[in-house]
Structures are given as C-alpha cells and as structure tokens.
Amino acid sequence: MISLADNQISGSIPPDISKFINLIFLSLEGNNFTGIIPPEITELGKLQRVLLSNNRFSGNIPASIGNLSMLDEIHLQNNDLNGMIPPSFGNCPMLVLLDLSQNNLSGTIPNELFQVTPFSVKLNISRNHLVGSLPAGIGALKTLVELDISENEFAGFIPAELGDCVTLDSLYMQGNFLQGNISQSMKKLRGLRNVDLSRNNLSGKIPDFFENLSLKYLNLSWNHFKGELHTKGVFANASAFSIVGNKGLCGGIPELRLRRCSTHKMSWVQILIMIGSIQVLLVVGCLLWLRRKKTETRAVSIGPASVFLIRLSYELLHQATDGFSRANLVSEGGFGSVYKGELGAQYSENAVAIKVFNEGAANNFNTECGALQNIRHRNIVKIRSTCKSIERSGKEFTAIIYDFMENGSLDRWQYLTCRTSHHELSMPQILNLKNRINIAIDVASALDYLHNQLIDPLIHCNLRQSNILLDAEMSAYVSNFGLAKFLADQWHSDGFTGPSEYAPPGKITIQFQLHT
Ligand SMILES: *[C@@H]1O[C@H](CO)[C@@H](O)[C@H](O)[C@H]1NC(C)=O
Ligand SMILES: *[C@@H]1O[C@H](CO)[C@@H](O)[C@H](O)[C@H]1NC(C)=O
Ligand SMILES: *[C@@H]1O[C@H](CO)[C@@H](O)[C@H](O)[C@H]1NC(C)=O
Ligand SMILES: *[C@@H]1O[C@H](CO)[C@@H](O)[C@H](O)[C@H]1NC(C)=O
Ligand SMILES: *[C@@H]1O[C@H](CO)[C@@H](O)[C@H](O)[C@H]1NC(C)=O
Ligand SMILES: *[C@@H]1O[C@H](CO)[C@@H](O)[C@H](O)[C@H]1NC(C)=O
Ligand SMILES: *[C@@H]1O[C@H](CO)[C@@H](O)[C@H](O)[C@H]1NC(C)=O
Questions:
Q1: Class of 2-256 per CATH?
Q2: What is the structure's pLDDT at 374?
Q3: Euclidean distance between CA atoms 212 and 392, whole angstroms
Q4: 245-260 burial by CB neighbour count: b if 16+ within 10 A, else e?
Q5: d(CA 82, CA 129)
Q6: Sequence ranges of the domains in the chain
Q7: What is the pLDDT of residue 350?
Q8: Which pLDDT score, from 0 to 100, does residue 288 have?
Q9: Most informative mutation of 4, 12, 32 for ligand 1 (most atoms within 8 A of CB)
Q10: pLDDT value at position 485?
C-alpha cells in the first residue's frame, strides 16, 4: 500500500511506479500533484483502490485502465483531466465506485461503461463538459445507489430504463439540458430519497408517484413543469422540496402561495359517474390508505454508498479476533464459525463479523461470494471484504467479512422470549409486534428482490431464523448464502439439493409466534 494523502507533495507520478507489482492500494489524494496519470499504472494488475482526487493531474485518463481487473474503487475527482471517459472502464468487473467529477472531461458517456453492471454502487461524473443523452444502458446498473450526472451538458430525455435501477437512493441531474416529461417508469424507484432535477428543461405535469415515495429532498426548480402541484408526501413539507422557477404550477400547500388551480364545471354525466363510483372508490381508497400507511412507516433506507474494504490478510484477521479466540466467537455452524473482530480505525470504525469457513467448505465460500457479489439490497448482508490465504499451520484459510450485527440472529430472540431470566445479554428480550411485522417485511422484501427483481433469480435454499440477522435498529438482513443457487443454473441440473427448509420462489410463509 502507498498512502501519501493530504500532504503538499508536488511533481508527477514517475512511470517507474509500474515496478511495484504487488501494489493494491494507491492513495495520493489531496496533494499538489501535476502531470499525467502514467499509463504504466495500468500494469499494476493487483491494484484494488486508486485515490488520486484533489490534485492537479491533467491529460487523459489512460485508455488501458480496463486492464486493472481487480479495481474496486477509483477516485479521480477534482483534477484537470480532459478527454473522454475511457470505455475500457467497462472491463473492470469489480468496480463499485467510479468518481470522475469536477474535471474537464468531454464527449458522451460510453455505453461500455454499463458493463460494470452488477457491481456499481456509486457513479459520479458531475461537473464536467459531457454531452449527449443519458444512454438507455443505464438500466443495467441494477445495484446503483447514487448517480450524479449534474452540472454537465447532457440533453435529450431521461431514459425510461432509469426505472430499472431499482436500488437507487440518490439521483442528481441538476444543471443540464434534459427535456421532456419525467418518465412514469421512475415510480419503480421506491428507495429514492434524494432527487435533484433542477435547472433543466423538463416539462409536463409533476407525476403523482412522487407523493408516494419516501423522498427526503426533491428539487424540481427552474424547469417548465405545469399543472396542479400535489400536497401529500414530500409535497406536504415546504422545506423538503423546491419548485421555484416553474411558472405553470398551481395549487400545492398554502405556504407556497401559488395561484389556485381553476376548477372547471362538471357536466351532469360526470357527476352521475362520480356518484356511481364513489362507493367503489371509498372501499378501494380505504384499502390503499391502509396499505400506504403501512409502507410509509417503513421508510426505505439504503444509506450512502458504503466504503468497501480491500481484501484483507490472514494476519490482520488473526489480530482482529485475538487469534480467533472463543471470547470472540459469535456462532458456529455447518460451514464454519463467525467471530466478532475489530480491524482498527484505518479499515473500519465499526466492529465486523468474520465468517471463517471450515476446511473443505471451499464450495460454500465460493457460492456465498458469487451470490453476494452480484446483489445489493438493504435487507441482505453486504460483503465488506474477503480473505483467501494460508494459515500459519499451512492449512487453507477462507473468510468473508461482514458488518457486525448488534442484535444477532433471529433465533436467539425467539429463544430469549422463553427465557426472560437470561441475564447474559443486555438487549430488550421481547420482540414486540411492530418489530415482528417489520422483520417480516424486511425478509419479504429481500426475497422479493432475490426472486423477482434480479435478471437471474437467486434462491437462498437455507432460509431459517438463524440466517436472519438484526442490526442495532432491529432491521433484518438475510445472510448465509452458502447454499444459494441461481435459478438459471438449476435448469441444467437434476434438481435441488438444498435442505428441507428450501422454499420455492413465489410463495413463502414467514411465521412468527405471538407471545401474549
Ligand atoms: C501547488 O503548486 C502551485 C504551482 O506549481 C503553487 O503555486 C501552489 O502554491 C502549490 N500549492 C500548495 C498547497 O503547495
Ligand atoms: C493491457 O492489456 C492488453 C491485453 O491484455 C495488453 O495488450 C496491453 O499491453 C495492456 N496495457 C498495459 C498498459 O498494460
Ligand atoms: C459528486 O461529486 C461532486 C464534486 O466532486 C460532489 O460535490 C458531489 O457531492 C458528489 N455527489 C455525490 C452524490 O456524492
Ligand atoms: C478543457 O478541455 C477543452 C477541450 O476539451 C480545452 O479547450 C480547455 O482548455 C480545457 N480547460 C481546462 C481548464 O483545462
Ligand atoms: C434547488 O435547486 C436550485 C437550483 O439548482 C438551488 O438554487 C436551490 O438551492 C435548491 N433548493 C434547495 C432547497 O436545496
Ligand atoms: C427547452 O425546451 C423547449 C421546448 O420544450 C425548446 O423550445 C427549447 O429550445 C429548449 N431549450 C433548451 C436550452 O434546450
Ligand atoms: C421537513 O423537511 C426537512 C428538511 O428535509 C426536515 O428536516 C424536517 O424534519 C421535515 N419535517 C417533517 C415534519 O417531516
């Protein structure tokens, strides 16, 4: 690793850097470096993370950047880079974060960029001079959490395919020349919390579905929207949204002091139809309202793009767990053991869970990595890092590192409800009805994602209470994907070999005992 961040070093990166053939981490951010990013850097095949932001690098991004097949994060923001975005970024299969913002990049977005699909979490290309329209290929970024294309010169329509980026949390597109209506397909983005479309050339009515999303921030100002402004959801809170500079809007909450919308007179036929359907509407309305109430209280939260760890060494994990001591053992199962560990502040502020696979469980390690690398959902555990190494004793060592879940697995809670005299753990000992319902919704939404929202549906095959983890806020996460199977693989084999708990996709019953 080389870290020289936040100093006052000037000069350029010597091409000889290519001699550090084992380099995995290069951080030169926050200095006064100038000159080009030497293409030789792309010969460092083990590089995982490159941080060159906040310098004065100029010239093009090396076209061969796609040779870095291990690259997981690259930060080039706030430099003087020019030229086009190299299409070869699409060859980096591990890339989760790409930040090219605040440079002098020009040209269009290469469609190849979206080949990084399964892995992308954050894409920031704001504050450049990029042109053209946002390619439809963006819909391939099924795990994207933050997209920032603001302050460029993009034109054309917002592609309907954006609605396929179902895990999107933040969408920044302000300061471009985007035109047309907001696509109805965006109603599929149920996790959206921050949306800025201000200073564009968008028109038409503001779509109804914005009312139903759990938006925290919605900026539609300085466009050409017209028609009646809604009053519910985000539109009920004047400090959460902005619509200034849209001359054609009327209605909305009184604080806005918009003109009232003119109501046109209804014909008798319309009135009769209205009366006729009022009963139906009442019933449907009640049902919808009840449903909305329920979902509203579960604001979808994915959180900001998480910082991923680089792959870790056996020594570090050994140290983090006091030599895999029993005091740090959290659970033991068929495939291995889970330890609580402290990696140290330079890796992770929070404790992590380290799942060490038994010898001979290499398949489960591979399956779990394979399954989880491709998916990101707020109710599915995230891999922070992995380790494949040789132990001191010469045995093969494989481990996956996750966030540590404060409240353990669901089966422990069920157990505790029967043993209220248990003192060992300082947690509230009873899951109340609200917790139970929320856990059921969390698990159901994870399964809905696995079964219905992935292109290639994934079947967990081992869903049980011990594999449902609870964080400090009692949000539930599905874990333990060691037996998971992609449905597509199944068509070619002789049937499922999962344990009896296997539940076919489509119908899953989640049962909770209610203790009175
Ligand atoms: C960075 O370099 C420029 C010229 O090369 C110099 O004017 C400036 O003071 C330097 N900044 C710092 C923080 O060293
Ligand atoms: C990148 O990879 C290609 C093919 O693998 C190779 O021909 C080329 O020389 C590499 N470029 C650099 C700069 O390493
Ligand atoms: C994108 O980059 C710009 C400039 O570096 C920054 O101001 C902005 O906050 C970033 N967007 C996101 C979503 O992080
Ligand atoms: C930005 O790039 C354009 C050409 O793409 C060039 O003419 C201009 O000088 C560059 N600006 C800076 C500040 O580097
Ligand atoms: C909304 O966007 C406009 C223009 O981009 C900006 O001036 C304004 O501060 C934003 N409003 C809020 C509430 O952030
Ligand atoms: C904005 O859209 C209108 C039509 O809706 C068009 O006439 C105008 O040229 C557009 N402006 C820009 C800057 O694209
Ligand atoms: C209104 O929005 C602001 C800014 O997003 C937020 O701080 C505040 O809590 C919201 N108020 C209500 C009642 O939701």
A1: alpha beta
A2: 65
A3: 56
A4: ebeebeebbeebebee
A5: 9
A6: 2-256, 304-490
A7: 82
A8: 56
A9: 32
A10: 81
> Letter for the amino acid at 179?
Q
The protein residue whose alpha carbon is closest to atom 3 in ligand 1 is 32
SS3 416: helix
| Encoded tokens for 95 | 């890339």
Does residue 176 have its Cβ closer than 6 Å to ligand 5?
Answer: no
Tell me what pLDDT residue 299 has.
31
Predicted pLDDT of residue 85: 95
Using a 10 angstrom Cβ sphere, with 0-12 exposed, 13-18 middle and 19 or more buried, the burial of residue 493 is exposed
The tokens of 68 are what? Answer: 């870095």
pLDDT the model gives residue 390: 74
Distance (angstroms) between ligand 7 centre and the Cα of 194 equals 13
Q: Tell me the CATH number for domain 304-490.
A: 1.10.510.10
> Which residues line ligand 1 at a C-beta cut-off of 6 Å?
8, 10, 32
Could you identify the atom of ligand 6 that is nearest to the CA of residue 177? 14
- Is the C-beta atom of 106 inside 6 A of ligand 4? yes
Residue 268: burial class (beta carbons within 10 Å; 0-12, 13-18, 19+): exposed
Question: In which residue are the tokens 């926050």 written?
Answer: 30
Distance 18 CA to ligand 4 centre (A): 29
Q: Which of 50, 84, 90 is nearest to 67 (CA)?
A: 90
From 55, 104, 127, 129, give the residue whose CB has the most ligand 4 atoms within 8 Å, as the site to mutate: 104
How many residues make up the chain in this entry?
516
- Separation CA 47–CA 387 (nearest Å): 16
pLDDT of residue 206: 94
Is there an atom of ligand 5 within 6 Å of 194 CB?
no
DSSP 326: G
Those residues of the chain that have pLDDT short of 70 are 116-119, 263-310, 374, 392, 414-430, 432, 489-516
Enumerate residues 6+ apart whose C-beta is below 8 A from 127: 101, 102, 103, 150, 151, 152
In our burial notation (b when 16+ CB lie closer than 10 A, e otherwise), range 428-462 reads: ebebeeebbebbebbbebbbebbbebbeebbbbbb
